[in-house]
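Q: Could you write out the predicted structure for this multi-component system? I'm mainly interested in how the pieces pack against one another.
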Amino acid sequence: MDKLQTRLLPRYIHATELFDGNEGTAIRKELIVPVGSDNKVFIKAESGTATVVNIVCLDAGHTAIGGDVKDSVIRLTCAGADRGRLIRDLTNVIAGVGTNNPNDGTNVGVIRLDGNNLSTVPSSIAVTAISIEFDANNA
Amino acid sequence: MGYNTNATRSFEELNPALPKWIIIHDTDSSDILSVPIGSGSNVIVSSAGANRPVIVIKDAGHNGTWLAHAKKDCSFTINSSGSTPSTIGRDVIHGILAFVADNNPGSKRVLEILPNTTFNGVNTGNINIDWDV
């Protein structure tokens, strides 16, 4: 597959949640989801969770293996006042704007949200925890 | 600009099918939505009056207190204001459509709409996000 073909494939978000949310502990949940080629991933912050930015992945969840289809959510914790900037930074990365382009040779199209390396989240905002919810909204 | 140095074309040229994104801030900044736009039929534009365009995003909302509640659509309403109310809603929509439809590889890929700022020549005024549409 040549470079042009590979670049037309969607990029991916690769998120990991650790036990207790602490760096250095084992991985508890992991989610890899395509982003950008359809409308199934979006980002939102809501007033009810003042320090959380939610990356919603439609139809990427379940109640249990073999259970009903649900949405998945990657939840990033940061200071409440920083949510807008975090959303802006993540959106720019996904859209391919700026210097954190996931399409470069290092990242090869993957946006990593690593619970064990929180400082590598592609944003100038300090993310203090990453959690994953597989059983989010009902379909 | 972060382009792959091994590529012979720019990122934008290589990803024409990827959607652009719109970021909307509610007036009090408690609600913020960033959503892809332009690659599917997830966006519906209506109007609640000449100066109040309403943009509905399919499946981007929820009822109740978010997790484990029913998936809903969400909307944002731009309560724009200015000296020519009869054209304000139209101008806001035209601005959004111009962003979405512009397929120039060098054009911006993210449009951020903030309350009480000038967008396409009009003041956006208050912006309200409704998660439960």
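A: Regarding packing and overall arrangement: Chain B has two helices and eight strands.
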